[in-house]
Design goal:
The chain is of the alpha+beta class. It has a domain of 225 residues: 4-Layer Sandwich (CNF1/YfiH-like putative cysteine hydrolases). It is 21% helix and 20% strand. The protein has eight helices and 15 strands. The chain is globular and about 65 Å long.
Length: 345
Amino acid sequence: MPPSASASTKSQAVDKLLSRGELAKAPRSPRGNQRPRESKPPALAEISPQTPRRVAKSRIEIIRAPAFDSVPWLIHGFSTRTGGASTAYRPAQRAGELNLGFTSSDSRENVLENRRRFLKALGAPPSMKLITLKQIHSSSVLSVGENNATDAEPCQGDGLMTDQPGILLAIQTADCIPVLLADVKKKAVAAFHAGWRGTVKRIVESGVGKMRVAFRSRPQDLIAAIGPGIAACCYAVGEEVLTEFTSQFAYGRELFHEVSDSDPIRQKYPMLFLSARPPGHSNLGPSLHLDLMEANRRQLLDAGLRLGAIAVIGDCTRCHNNRYFSYRAEQGFTGRMLSAIGIRG
């Protein structure tokens, strides 16, 4: 993330506090300069954080994919955090927020009211059954029909699919990538929750395969929408994640980028960030960032979808934390959004 408007003020304050000490400043390096590494970096790219936009906090907003809107029998949409009844996550804010997940910090009554508002804004009839999952970062995809369309006790898994009208499939996210699919010929739909663990387990790619078996879907008849999630600009990960991806995908290294640390205080006063971690310092310099949206787009292409059939919303939930819930931006204390898709009855 780039320095905030108050970064220089904070830096001046640290300068003043340390002016009587003997702590030396680190020499400033040009912006974007990267520290050499022993091994070749996975990829080098200029990745800039997204610029937040103003939002109407009292209004429910539904994000849609244009290609999906052109299919008359299809209902779909990605929620944001605005326009709800919840006040748990930002109690000082006048307008409530649209938390759609049953979290420990919010009341069940608020979540049910938020879901009612979301379904109304989505254009779903009251008779539609909303189906969610207890998500476990797996590759498990469940088929939903009239006999098992109940949300009383959600099943475990990270993907849902159906060809039955009147059922609305929904995935909960707060940084992970939601992916919606529709077969425009067979009238079948699917929704996937793709965190990095589910992505490395090929949740989306295997989901397309399961649609082919269950509904005789052809990849060339599928359209896909990759919804808002944490983008490469903000998704710093460890080397173990790189190892997981490179062991599973021939293009694995292409999904990772090295991004320079842009914290001015850390750069000026590296001695403040001493730690017991060998060789004695906490992480300074380049950090490893994963492009999770691109990872899922590549899986869709490998599964046989046409290039033009994949829409990527592209919004970073951490950069646009005023518009979306973000687990990382809010350090775990956050609500959940829903990404929903269904067939009109």
